[in-house]
Specification:
Elements: H1 6-25, H2 47-56, H3 58-65, H4 71-83, E1 91-93, E2 99-101, H5 106-111, H6 117-134, E3 140-143, H7 170-181, E4 184-185, H8 188-193, H9 209-222, H10 232-235, E5 240-241, H11 246-251, E6 260-261, E7 291-294, E8 300-306, E9 323-330, H12 343-349, E10 353-356
Helix pairs in contact: 6-7
């Protein structure tokens, strides 16, 4: 007499075969995967830097391109569409196929359903204190918050967004607070809305090149230098197909809309970017190093405290400006953090103009974040370890 009945033996073989197939699938390239690294390797990397990057990220590459991890989300999406079931992903699709990021509470923030008054107040107080410390040295600060796509691409938002109607947003609150502090700030939302659609990349969290240039020009006007603006036609190339955006790369889904952009075609006045001894702070991400761009022996010194919306492009757009050096520093030590840059670096760099351009979903100061070296002048701090 056998220990297992014949049906159970068949089931055992089936289960063993299933587990064996799953193990072998980790060695089989996914037919739907793109075979790309989730974050593109910069061309400026040397061969040893590229090898080090690939070694540290090989796990993510295997996760993206093996084990049917790209195929399964597609099957899941097709099944939900066939059943008429709503999806629940970290992004969502607008009326014309544009993708919107759904995390970091961006939808509620842009709609005004989420207003973290204490965190916005903390940001406003931080900028006001920076201005009080630096104004005697002749430094001017201009705040320009790159908006969430949900704050600009209103025509593309899904129909359920029409029901969200709140009077005040965190962006509005910040502008009012900065005005009360006497800090110059520019509202980039109407600036970008005035441009042609699409204003943001349709498969990415970032604005497109034209919106970047229009925003840069608005900042130059707000800074009192309208002659420092650049002609978009002079720095942008013709519209052409663009690489799929970060939203699409993260989800590993095939594109439903075609990504196009006007690539930057800047005839650089500045020298190649370099490290500056005054800017010692570096963001945790290898792509967000603090860099300086030399323009001329004399002229103003400009420091951009920003993120991926401005890094790479804005420091190179001072083609018509009387500047000697333009530096870029990430406003946070963490990619998803806020307000914890090193103010001692700012003072050491001694800028004449500071442009603060942290994106909307990250500009409120979370938790106990505060710049190193900047005095804390207020008594309404958000307690540490309290969710914003």
């Amino acid at each position: 007499m056998t220990l297992l009945s014949r049906p159970r033996r068949y089931i055992g073989v089936l289960v063993a075969g299933l587990f064996g197939f799953l193990l072998l699938s980790n060695l089989i390239p996914d037919p739907v995967a793109s075979g790309q690294w989730r974050v593109a390797i910069p061309d400026s990397f040397t061969w040893d830097q590229k090898l080090n990057y690939k070694f540290r990220n090989i796990g993510i590459y295997i996760q993206d391109n093996f084990g049917f991890r790209a195929t399964l989300p597609v099957l899941r999406q097709n099944l939900r569409e066939a059943l008429g079931s709503p999806d629940s992903r970290p992004f969502y699709t607008g009326r014309d196929g544009q993708l919107f990021w759904g995390r970091e509470q961006a939808p509620a923030q842009s709609a005004g359903a989420l207003v973290r008054a204490a965190n916005v107040e903390r940001f406003v107080t931080m900028v006001g204190e920076m201005q009080r410390v630096l104004a005697p040295k002749g430094t001017r600060i201009v705040v320009a918050i790159p908006p969430n796509a949900q704050s600009v691409e209103l025509e593309a938002l899904p129909t359920w967004y029409d029901k969200l109607n709140y009077p005040v947003t965190e962006y509005d609150l910040a502008l009012a607070g900065l005005k009360a502090e006497g800090v110059t700030a520019v509202d980039l939302r109407p600036v970008i809305k005035a441009g042609p659609r699409p204003r943001y990349l349709v498969t990415d969290t970032h604005w497109n090149s034209r919106s970047s240039v229009l925003s840069f020009n608005a900042v130059m006007v707000a800074a009192g230098h309208p002659d420092w603006q650049v002609d978009p036609a002079a720095v942008l190339g013709p519209t052409s197909p663009s690489a799929r955006g970060d939203l699409l790369r993260t989800t590993r889904l095939p594109p439903k809309v075609k990504e196009e952009d006007e690539p930057f075609a800047i005839k650089d006045r500045a020298a190649a970017p370099r490290l500056d001894p005054a800017l010692k702070h570096h963001n945790e991400h290898i792509a967000f190093k603090s860099l300086a761009y030399d323009y001329a022996p004399t002229g103003q010194r400009v420091l951009i405290l920003g993120d991926s919306f401005t890094g790479g492009a804005w420091p190179r757009l001072f083609l018509n400006a009387n500047v000697s050096v333009v530096a870029w520093v990430h406003e946070s030590r963490r990619v998803t953090g806020s307000c914890d840059f090193n103010f001692d670096d700012v003072k050491a760099f001694a800028p004449d103009l500071i442009i603060m351009a942290r994106t909307e979903r990250f500009f409120p100061c979370y938790g106990d974040n505060w710049p190193a070296g900047l005095p804390r002048p207020w008594s309404h701090a958000v307690p540490n370890n309290v969710a914003p």
